[in-house]
């Protein structure tokens, strides 16, 4: 869920099955409390998310998407760090998963506006300030102006 939604840990742990719409193919990460100001998005399910969520849904015991022993999970810190140790990784913070989602989308050529909406940012400037450096291709047409009339492979 972290990799396929770009949501933060708390967002994922808050998820209940009524926010997963298999018919429409969307995951609603928003809170309905009317108080929380943190931006959260409604994101489409990709194939990986759908397959994983369908398997979890058929085995569910509670209303929570991420559950254990009949109840919601409060923290995944212990399991996350155990998985890192098992993989031989150090210094990888869980919030970096959200950054990985943003960077991967931008590196694949997705417009920063879409990435911003996907991450649930209230303003595209937040996304741009943090991630624009990972999308240098978006400036190719701007740099072409600086060819000053040169033509050909080196000058175009």
What features would you describe in this structure?
This protein is mainly alpha-helical and 156 residues long. It folds into two domains: 1-91, no CATH class; 95-149, no CATH class. It is built from eight helices and five strands. It has helices at residues 2-5, 9-13, 47-58, 77-87, 96-107, 112-119, 124-131, 140-144, and strands spanning 20-21, 26-28, 42-44, 67-68, 71-72. The protein has a three-stranded antiparallel sheet, with no helix packed on it. Strands 4-5 form a two-stranded antiparallel ribbon. A hairpin with a 4-residue loop joins strand 1 and strand 2. Helix 5 (96-107) runs antiparallel to helix 6 and helix 6 (112-119) crosses helix 7 (124-131).
Structural features:
5 strands; 8 helices; 156 residues; 2 domains; three-stranded antiparallel beta sheet; two-stranded antiparallel sheet; mainly alpha
């Amino acid at each position: 869920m972290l990799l396929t939604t770009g949501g933060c840990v708390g967002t994922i742990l808050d998820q209940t099955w009524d926010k997963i719409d298999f018919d429409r193919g969307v995951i609603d990460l928003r809170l309905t409390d009317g108080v929380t100001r943190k931006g959260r998005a409604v994101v489409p399910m990709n194939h990986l998310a759908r397959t994983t969520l369908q398997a979890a849904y058929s085995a569910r015991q509670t209303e929570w998407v991420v559950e254990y022993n009949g109840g919601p999970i409060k923290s995944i810190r212990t399991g996350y760090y155990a998985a890192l140790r098992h993989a031989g990784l150090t210094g990888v913070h869980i919030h970096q998963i959200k950054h990985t989602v943003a960077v991967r989308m931008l590196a694949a050529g997705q417009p920063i506006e879409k990435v911003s909406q996907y991450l649930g940012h209230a303003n595209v400037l937040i996304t741009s300030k943090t991630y624009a450096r990972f999308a240098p291709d978006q400036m190719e047409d701007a740099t072409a102006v600086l060819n000053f009339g040169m033509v050909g492979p080196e000058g175009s």
